[in-house]
Amino acid sequence: MSTLQFIWKNQAQVYALTFEHLWLVGVSMLLAVSIGMPLGILVTRRPAFGKAILGASTVVQTIPSLALFGFLLSSPWLGERADRLAVTALTLYALLPIIQNTYAGIRGVDPSVREAARGMGMSDFQLLFEVELPLGMGVILAGVRVATVITIGVATIAAAIGAGGLGEFIFRGLAMVDNRVILAGAIPAALMALLADFLLGRLERRFRYL
Questions:
Q1: What is the pLDDT of residues 98-117, one digit of tens each?
Q2: What's the pTM?
Q3: Quick one: how far is CA 149 from the chain centroid?
């Protein structure tokens, strides 16, 4: 039986695990954007916090994914539910590119545009939301795109702690030494990452050339 035949025969389970994977990635990215963008904005307004914020998010990126899952597993509240733990770990992994690109997108706005906006009497709040964020959105979305692709890949490790997702097939295939089962999880995850990269790339280019 080929890999495609295996996927077709087990399509109900493939759909269920794909949905679980999408849920983990979607919730994690929503949280990462909600946390990462404000932190990136904070760094542009308070550079003194920059080293601490970027340093902490960089340290998280250097921790092997399985080790981070294992470390969080011992946390009293997080360790009670696998999906809660997985979402926390994935959110932490997604922060760095979002924070960096939010900072770069805002700081990359032409200083003359910023000065013109201030000359028109705009407050810092208006400058941020009416000038800097719209003009820097292409760069910010590039960070979101990178973070999304990373999260889709790392989310396969979530199966190791019982959080579900397409990693279930990958770990099961490794235990059985069966490439068909491994590919049943790896192929949909790869296609998901490629699709997310394509769609967010289109959106990014649209904002870059507004």
A1: 999 999 999 999 989 988 98
A2: 0.91
A3: 7
